[in-house]
Design brief:
Helix content: over 70%
Largest sheet: none
Shape: globular
Structural class: mainly alpha
Oligomer: single chain
Length: 72
C-alpha cells in the first residue's frame, strides 16, 4: 500500500496534467514555489490545508474532492 504522500503526489500530477498546466504554471497561479510543487508530486512533502485549498482552486476542483480521491 502506498503512503499518503506518494498517493497525493500521483493524484496532484494527474490533476495538473488533466488541467494542461506545467508545474511552473501551477506554482505561479497558486503562489507557491515550483520546486515545492515538484516535492509534492514526488511524495517528499505534504501540503498544508491552506496549500491544498490554493492548489484546488487553480485546478478548478474542490479540496474535498481531492481528499475523497485519496480515500478511495
Amino acid at each position: 500500500m502506498q503512503n499518503l504522500e506518494t498517493k497525493f503526489g500521483q493524484l496532484l500530477k494527474q490533476l495538473r496534467a488533466e488541467s494542461g498546466l506545467t508545474q511552473e504554471d501551477l506554482a505561479i497561479q497558486s503562489d507557491l514555489d515550483r520546486t515545492y510543487i515538484s516535492l509534492l508530486e514526488r511524495g517528499l512533502r505534504q501540503p498544508t490545508i491552506s496549500t491544498l485549498f490554493k492548489i484546488a482552486e487553480v485546478l478548478e476542483v474542490t479540496p474535498s474532492s481531492i481528499i475523497k480521491k485519496l480515500e478511495e
